[in-house]
Write a structure and sequence with these properties.
single chain, 253 residues, alpha+beta, Photosynthetic Reaction Center, Chain H, domain 2, globular
Length: 253
């Protein structure tokens, strides 16, 4: 099912032996457009670090009714995981240490969205092993979602609006759409675009460039944030833009 990323903030996170904290942010990979980590605010829940990272690999169950993520980890295991610093970008070395600590295989450097697989839970069923050749890519292309929300969106001709939210697939944690608020141009209207139509993200300029024009976006199929994104609407959207749909690509892979 497709879900608003903003609506997942404040979800509680529960280890196998008690609560850890609440979700306060997300790191996503801007090459595969997939949520890699949840930032969990653990302040007040223990005497350990105030912020910890949780990978979807650790999810045992997501309870959407009670807004709670259940982990297959203990509080002690999470408490002693590699620490994070708010103003320091996550490096590949950090991710290697993180994966090794939890005894999980790397999710990068193979073929699928999650290592050799399409969903994160499968990685939890496998164990970390020393790679035959050390991976040298030091840039994991990870961004905090909060750093991109609010950025202006530039079409091929003019400004379209600003990033308001992301819509994610709760099975594999892939970002399927970015939500763009266009209120400066069309009162009260929000549109959704595939992240794969983004050609550039500039953190310094607080700008996201997309390879569609403002006029084309203006006439796209109407969408309401109050309604779930279903396959019927998605088909209309991709047909309108004349772009291949992600579900056809998923079948090929």
């Amino acid at each position: 099912m497709l879900r608003s990323l903003k609506n997942l903030e404040e979800y509680k996170v529960t280890a196998s032996d008690g609560d850890i904290g609440k979700v306060s942010g997300f790191y996503f990979d801007d090459r595969h457009w997939t949520i890699r980590y949840l930032v969990v605010d653990a302040g007040g829940f223990w005497d350990g670090p105030e912020r910890v990272l949780i990978s979807p690999i650790a999810f045992r169950e997501a309870d959407w009714d009670t807004k709670r993520f259940h982990l297959s980890l203990t509080r002690e295991k999470v408490k002693n995981s590699p620490g994070i610093h708010k103003d320091v970008p996550l490096s590949r070395q950090y991710e290697q240490n993180y994966s090794k600590y939890y005894n999980w295989p790397y999710y990068w450097g193979f073929g699928g969205i999650w290592g050799e697989w399409s969903t994160p839970g499968i990685l939890a069923e496998n164990t970390w092993s020393e790679p035959a050749e050390e991976l040298v890519d030091d840039n994991p292309h990870l961004r905090l979602a909060e750093d991109v929300i609010g950025c202006s969106v530039e079409g091929t001709d003019k400004e379209i609006g600003h990033i308001q939210d992301f819509i994610v697939d709760d099975t594999n944690w892939t970002i399927r759409y970015v939500v763009v608020n266009t209120r400066h141009w069309w009162s009260g209207k929000s549109v959704i675009l595939s992240p794969h139509w983004i050609s550039r993200i500039s953190g310094k300029e607080d700008k996201v460039e997309v390879n569609v024009s403002r006029e084309v976006v203006r006439n796209c199929p109407e969408w309401s944030p109050d309604q779930p994104v279903n396959r019927q609407y998605e088909t209309r959207l991709f047909d309108y833009y004349g772009r291949p749909s992600y579900w056809r690509d998923d079948k090929k892979s």
